[in-house]
Amino acid sequence: MWIPTEHEKYGVVLASFRGTVQHGLPLEIGDTVQILEKCEGWYRGFILKNPNIKGIFPSSYIHLKNAHVKNKGQFETVIPVEDSVITEMTSTLRDWGAMWKQLYVKNEGDLFHRLWHVMNEILDLRRQVLVGHLTHDRMRDVKQHITARLDWGNEQLGLDLVPRREFSMVDPDEISVTELYRLMEHRHRKKETPAPASTHHLFVHVKSLMSANLGEELEVFFHIYDGRENRPLSERFFVKLNKSGLPKSPEKTERQCTLFVDLGSSDLRKDVYIVVHIIRIGRMGAGEKKNLCSVQYRRPFGCAVVSIADLLTADSKDDHLLKVYACNTESEWHQIHENLIKKANSRYNLSGSNTGLAVGLQLLHGDIEQLRREYMVLFTRGVSITRKLGFSDVIMPGEMRNDLYITLEKGEFEKGGKSVARNVEITVYVLDIDGQILKSHVAAGAGEPGGDEYHSLVLYHNNSPRWAEQIKLPIPVDMFRGSHVRFEFRHCSTKDKGEKKLFGYSFVPLMQEDGRTLPDGTHELIIHKCEENTSLADCPRYLKMPFSKANLPSNNQTLKGTKESFWITSFLCSTKLTQNGDMLDLLKWRAHPERINDSLSKLKEIDGSEIVKFLQDTLDTLFGILDESSQRYGLKVFDSLVHIINLLQDSKFQHFKPVMDTYIESHFAGALSYRDLIKVLKWYVDRIVDAEHQDHIQQVLKASEYIFKYIIQSRRLFSLATGGQNEEEFRVCIHELFMSIRFFLSQENKTTSPVAQTQAVFLRTFPAVYGELLKIFTVREVAGFVRETLGSLPTAVHADCLEAVKLQCITKTVESQLYINPESRCILLPVVLRVLQAHMQEQRDLVMCARILTSMLSLIQKEENGTAEPVVSEEVELIVESLLGVLLRTILEISNRPQPAGPAMRLQFQDVTGEFVACLLALLRQMSDRHYQQLLQAFSSKDNLRDFLLQIFTVFRILIRPEMFSKDWTVMRLVTNNVIITTVLYLSDALRKNFLNDKFDYKVWDSYFYLSVIFINQPCLQLESFSPSKRKKILEKYGDMRVMMGCEIFSMWQNLGEHKLNFIPAMIGPFLEVTLVPQPDLRNVMIPIFHDMMDWEQRRSGNFKQVEAKLIDKLDSLMSEGKGDETYRELFNSILLKKIERETWRESGISLIATVTRLMERLLDYRDCMKLGEVDGKKIGCTVSLLNFYKTELNKEEMYIRYIHKLYDLHFKAQNYTEASYTLLLYDELLEWSERPLREFLNYPMQSEWQRKEYLHLTIVQNFDRGKCWENGIILCRELADQYESYYDYRNLSKMRMMEASLYDKIMDQQRLEPEFFRVGFYGKKFPFFLRNKEFVCRGHDYERLEAFQQRMLNEFPHAIAMQHVNQPDQTIYQADAQYLQIYAVTPIPESQDVLQRDGVPDNIKSFYKFNHIWRFRYDRPFHKGTKDKENEFKSLWVERTTLTLVQSLPGISRWFEVDKRELVEVSPLENAIEVIENKNLQLRTLITQCQSRQMQNINPLTMCLNGVIDAAVNGGLARYQEAFFVKDYIMNHPEDGEKIGRLRELMFEQAHILEYGLAVHEKYVPQDMRPLHKKLVDQFHLMKSSLGIQEFPAYVRASPVHFTNGSPRTCRNSVPNIISPDGGRGVARRSLPSYPAVNRYSSSSLSSQASNEVSNITGQSESSDEVFNMQPSPSTSSLSSNHSASPNVTSSAPSSARGSPQMAEKHKHSRENACLSPRDRPVSAIFPNPMDPAQRAPPHQIGDATLPRSDPNLSAPDKVRPTPSSWSLDSVKEGAPSFSDSFGKMLCPPVPPRPPYSGSSAKNMRSQSPVSASRSPQKTTVPPFTPSPTECQSTSLVSNSPVLSGSYSSGISSLSRCSVSEASGTELPAGDHLPHPLPPPTTLPNSVSSSSDEPIRRENKTPPPYSVYERNNPRRPVPLPHSLSIPPQTDPPALPPKPHQLRTGSMKLDGTSDPRVPRPRPLPRKVSQL
Predict the structure, then answer these.
(1) Which of 511, 505, 506, 447 is nearest to 475 (CA)?
(2) How many CB atoms lie within 10 A of CB 171?
(3) Which of 219, 1503, 1556, 1943 has an alpha carbon 20 to 30 Å from 311's alpha carbon atom?
(4) 3-state DSSP helix/strand/coil percent for the chain, to nearest 5?
(5) What is the per-residue pLDDT for 318?
(6) Does the pLDDT value for residue 1776 go beyond 50?
(7) Which of 646, 649, 620, 625 shows the shortest CA–CA distance to 637?
(8) pLDDT of 273
């Protein structure tokens, strides 16, 4: 049975648990769990980081920890009982762990590794803390280290600053806001600027001396030297080096390392140096022989100096190599360092080129104790301390020191009978009172231990030597009395023995008889002569003799007159001994009572350091004198006491204040002193007003704190001694004293008057007295004193400085112990508030005011946590009443004040703002219901209340600003927000009661709403962006404050009633912003407000246009900022639709909601697509969708233009220059050529509309040029040229004409790639809205084939699935939660057929019309209908033809457009056969023509084509068609197909005739090695003829099947046609073949598999034929094929299926449905019309031999034939299709200058009556027509413009041509067809015509001018006459072609009535972008 746990509440997982049992909870090692219940070794609970999932787990896996439980029961929370630092460490490391991994992902390696080290360090420290073996101090250090590391990591990772007190995190609810602010500020400041250290230390480590000529031991002395004052600052540090120049004792680091301690900041300057003297120990002369002398002397070696300032800049860890200079002249040794400092280096040699002293030098900063902690290794390893000469800047009490420094300066000696000067050495000894030498008390310097004696330098042959050697005598204080120092002088002989001979001595006693020590300074000592062997052991004997020349008696002339002298300088640094006689006199006052007065007077002149040394003794002396003779010396003692007290205020001695405090507490014994002290103090105070000189009185008042300490302590001692006698008398004295003080304070004075300054001095010290008074008086009494004293100050004070001091006094009062007591607070608070209010109203001394307020409010918080509730409430009431209003005004004032320039000032203001804000928050947090009620009732009028509300709302808005607090102060921000929302809830009540209905005030309500909105939107409340742990903490502590505020907004909105109209539409944007916050509850509360707004707006104006407009405007800007999501869109839609269900205006409401929802869809898509890393295609598609939405549905012009430019930028970046041009055209078309001024917009400057349009035109032309869309650019050039011409701007006109010309050149000279087009279907719900369940046609990139395109799409949509069939998907795919892509290639159907079908137009020009302005695309799919005949599959092979019409033509503003309309038709097997043979015939003609005109490099393509057709036919190709359609059964069953069967028969005959001619041409050009193949072809052709049953061609066929003509295209354009002969093949064709050569790329099928097999090894497969044709290889078969659907765009009509690839041909595959062809595989069929009625057919002999059974390749079906409506033809439907005709009128047809139509003959429009409707002739062309492209062949016909049914040269019948412009041969117009002129009778036509007969027709058939709507009004064009019917041309020369833009009218016709030479009115140009 499960039992709730009592104590087992919290634990840590010790081992991972998989949770495989029922209800098991999986656990990871290290997880923390909260336990709810237990049962037999199992616990039930949850993991703390995921409390929603509960489960069971074994108790043995859990380590239990102690924990506190809050809110026992269902919602209990568990807090572990452990050190708060540990808790913080654990949670922080968990947060860091996740972020640390992200650093690796983001490739921030440096921070990753640093954080890793810190985390490990923290874990290590955590272990130390958890073990609990650390000492208290060590634990403190470890915690400090941990928190420093945590703060560092948080700062690096951008986490929040943690407020801490004593290393523990503080709970913001448990301290006041002011205290919290102070902690945050302190941590922030600490983080910013560490305080500079005032003490510095120099670390020196001697490494070695590098020199070539060593060989002797050395002594190295370092000291710090002041170059400005020329004196040493420190004692010497002494290192001994061995003969190699290395330290003698390397194992003792303290002998090589030292710390020069206690350098002040003033010592770190340029002229303070480290000076190094080096002494060698050895022979007298450096060059002497080694064994000459055994005695060692100390001789000068060299010197080095380095400035301390250099160390401040150098890298501290670098070693320094100091240059060592040798001393040449020993007499200058004493000043060598000075000369080096003065840069007089030239007089010294460097001891060697590579001589240098290697030392480590490092400056350390901070207190010595701090250094011991930071550089622990340094101190544990060993370092000697080298002290400063004298005391440091700060003297610490308890510091023990007694060092006497003696410097051996110089000597003056006589020659002593020698011929040369002496070599003098001094030996120094210290002897005690008994004459015994003191052992180890002579030290050469720090570093080496002291010795018994010291030997000086020896300067060679010098009777006036100057040594300047400093020695240190650390003699204990108790040995000082009676000790003396003796100096012995010896001459060092350089002779053989090298002996040292004594010749004199000097001495100096260390203490005088009166107890004073040897005074500091230079002393000239007497040299007492003596013999060499004199014993100096008898000290008392010579001590009686004089030692110094200064104190010789005047009668002793003998010693005074002697020349020999010895000078020393002494300096005593002692904390116990004095050299001051006055000091000693004072301390010994009882011995000389008569000197007391004198001694007290002289006390002020004694050095402060002497006084503090003897502080306690001095104080005892003073109070002793006072007790004995107070009347006589009272005033003097008082003054002396004041002097000593004020001395301790000095920074040098301030550390002695505790010494004095200790003295007062423990040693002071003057029980009667208080009377005298009070009396003298009162006497001074009473004299203040009248005294002229206030200086002394001010000194007295400065000391008042300690005077009161003495008074109070004295009184307490007296009370203890007497049992409290004279208490009343004492109180009276104190009251009188305070009355005197109040009197002097109440004096009004000018600022400059001395009294005012004295008042200021008193106010500064007064607060320090409170604590003393409290020792005797009650709290209320002291508070009374303070209140009356402060209250006595004059109110109208003119003295600014006094005001500031008064404020400082109040600050200290509020921070004092007195104010902490609630009793005294009640008394003092009114005084404090009065002063504060006055200052804050005048905006003076705000820093102090903030400090006072902070202290006051911190205390209130503390009390509130205690028990004194009523008192606190009363205080809060007082503060609110006095300061709330002025506090708000102050914050407003400071925030609006311009920030001062200086950084320090700026910082100060910032501090003040933060302090006041914290005070305001603290105050508001203290306020209860009662306080708010009182506050609101206190306002006398509505206006005052209104002003207050406006003020507080404005202040709250300031508090919410991001810059209010630092970025990482989240804790502070949350507290602020909590206070704000609480206050707003109270104030909203006042708003409702006072400012509604007739008292409505818009400004207050607006301010309220505005505040609420920015409150909800502030970043620190967006919990979704926080880590789960942080979010959980915030929700537990504060809840989601956004929802609370949202509910409040809703409630207030509902109260507004009809006043809501005031906020429509102003509040729509702000409220919309609130609803976009991703918080479901908030959205549910706020979205209904929009329904309310719509309702009120509907009532007011009958619609809600305003609401709609505002919503749409704001949505765009807000969503582009990243706000809103899919959930919001659904919620918005569902909530509002539900709300408006019952409204009368429901319909318009639904419409608005739908519009807004659709806009959101697009904006969300747009935002998703614009993310970094998204592909350009998606971005462009999305932008187009949005742009169109703004234009068509919303009609928002500005937004539309903005998105035009966004789209332009995307295209430009993606190098889609053509699309970029079309996009910019959209904006260009909105502008007119006017002078209207336009404002600055986007990147456009302020300019006229004309200028902007001009700029746009130029930019667009430039982009059209880049995109090789030169024809479009030409139109714009012309438009601009017209404008320039109209303004007579010929300069620019010239440039424009040149630009236009250059574009024409580019059209003719540059190659353009032909793009592929692909149809893409996007199915499934996972696609963005602008793509979802839609199909598009996309223009591929250059060189992009189907596979590459498909791969690109799959890369753009990586989650999409490619569909493997081309059938339309069903509903399951549409509704699937997935992405499906269906891709296949489609063939464009060009609209500009007239250009394409015209003769003589170069391919460069035609290529533009083939692939531009395409609206319609086609795709064919073959299938079998009915039963499939295995013997002959052509009987049942149908083609399903799909035509797609787009919403806009390609190219346009995008590379892809949506499909607007699909049309489906089925092509019967017979029609299919006709198409196939037509296309093959066309292909053959083209190849033969090219071969004849030498356009082919070699003859292989023709060879293969002939081979494919003949071989297939021999093997049953054409025979299969005969079997299928020429049998009786078929003719009987399909009587309606009679004409088509006839047409098929004609085409078969025609093919045979073309083949015969082709073979003749082939024979002429075939190379020798191909002759056998040719012979075989000829044989097979005869077989084929016989198999077809053709013995002889009919006459009309025999005449000329191809009508190839002789003559050059340039010279003899219209020459008489020859009868077909191979010899005639040299001539270039007069009229061009169709512009799309009907060349097949791939083998499709042959008429039988057998035939295909046989031919495959001859033809060499289709791929090789492609190479021969110089075509691009096509991608392999598409992966979209399937077993059930045919390949895109291919219908197969031949039985065999070697259709797609060479592999198929090789392996003789036959399953035709499985092939899926790429665009290149998809040839397009010829156009075939309905057969004519046989009755209308003219007999062949009427036409003549020249008219052959051919179709005109240059005509599309609608132009040739009016089709009879039938079951398979949709031509008639198509002609009326509005989409075609409307769009065609807008088609941009770039300029091809038309020739004027010929208007002289009625015969020009006559049609042939033969079964073949028009003559066919080879095309005149200058460019080989084999530009490979899958979409090369197009036509306007819907039915017939389809891919043809085969892809190889294997069969003429079955092969599918890849171009779609074969023509309808053998038909002519029905009688009802509308022709421009009636046809003349055919009999009148001659059989042959002149060579120029074709000219009129050629002229008439030219392309209509650009912008022509010719196609729209005349869907069918007149058919050109055959050759034989041509009419001679006019003799007049043709007129110059008119400007194309003059022919742009929509009404222009190409008939005889229109003459282009007549000027026409110029219409407005069409908009290119509309095409």
Answers:
(1) 511
(2) 12
(3) 219
(4) 50, 15, 40
(5) 66
(6) no
(7) 625
(8) 92
Instruction: Give 1219's DSSP letter.
Output: H
**Cβ atoms of residues 488 and 461 within 8 Å:** no
> How far apart are alpha carbons 181 and 915 in whole angstroms?
7
The structure tokens listed for 972 are 């502070």
Assigned token pair, 1072: 């919309």
From first CA to last CA, the distance across the chain in angstroms is 81
Q: What are the contacts of 585-590 at 24+ separation with CB within 8 A? A: 586/618, 586/621, 587/614, 587/617, 587/618, 587/621, 589/621, 589/624, 589/625, 590/624
Nearest alpha-carbon partner for 933 in 890, 987, 1013, 857:
987
Retrieve residue 979's tokens: 């206070």
Instruction: Tell me the DSSP string of 1494-1558.
Output: T--SSSHHHHHHHHHHHHHHHTTHHHHHHHHHSSHHHHHH-GGGHHHHHHHHHHHHHHHHHHHHH
pLDDT tens-digit readout, 1171-1215: 766 777 788 888 888 888 888 888 888 899 999 999 999 999 999
Residue 35 backbone phi and psi in degrees, to 5: -100, 130
**pLDDT at position 1252, please?**
96
Digit-coded pLDDT (tens) for 1808-1830: 333 333 333 333 333 344 333 33
Residues 6+ apart with CB under 8 A from 459: 300, 330, 331, 333, 423, 424, 465, 466, 467
Binned at pLDDT 50, 70 and 90, residue 1747 comes out as very low
Instruction: Pinpoint the alpha helices (H) of 866-928.
Output: 869-879, 885-896, 903-926
Q: Is the pLDDT of residue 1803 over 50?
A: no
Going by pLDDT thresholds of 50, 70 and 90, the confidence category of residue 368 is confident
Q: What is the CA radius of gyration of the chain?
A: 56
Q: Which distant-in-sequence residues (6+ apart) come within 8 Å of 1971 by Cβ?
A: 1413, 1449, 1452, 1783, 1786, 1787, 1788
Quick check: 297 and 282 in contact, CB under 8 A?
yes
User: Which amino acid appears at position 288 of this protein?
Assistant: E
* Per-residue DSSP letter, 886: H
Q: Do residues 885 and 894 make contact, with C-beta atoms less than 8 angstroms apart? A: no
Q: Are 1143 and 1090 in contact (CB under 8 A)?
A: no
Tokens representing residue 1768 in the block: 């398979």
What residues form DSSP beta bridges with 485? 430, 508
Structure-block tokens of residue 234: 């420190």
Integer Cα distance of 499 and 1762 in angstroms: 147
Instruction: Say whether 1691 sits in a helix, a strand or coil.
Output: coil
Distance CA(1061)–CA(1100), nearest Å, equals 8
**How big is the CA angle at 1131 (ends 1125 and 1134), to the nearest 5 degrees?**
145
Q: Please choose, from the candidates 1846, 1850, 1914, the residue with its C-alpha nearest in 3D space to the C-alpha of residue 1876.
A: 1914
Phi, psi of 1869 (to 5 degrees): -70, 145
Global pTM reads 0.63
CB-CB contact of 840 with 887 (8 Å):
yes
Give pLDDT tens digits for 1542-1597: 999 999 999 999 999 999 999 988 999 989 999 999 998 988 888 777 766 554 44
Model pLDDT for residues 1042-1074, shown as the tens digit of each residue? 999 999 999 999 999 889 999 998 999 999 999
Residue 628 pLDDT greater than 90, yes or no: no
> Is the alpha carbon torsion for 673, 676, 679, 684 positive or negative?
negative
Q: What is the dihedral of CA 1195, 1201, 1205, 1207, to 10 degrees?
A: 10
Cis omega before residue 540 (within 30°)? no
Residue with tokens 């085969």, as numbered in its chain = 1846
**Is the alpha carbon torsion for 1282, 1284, 1288, 1292 positive or negative?**
negative
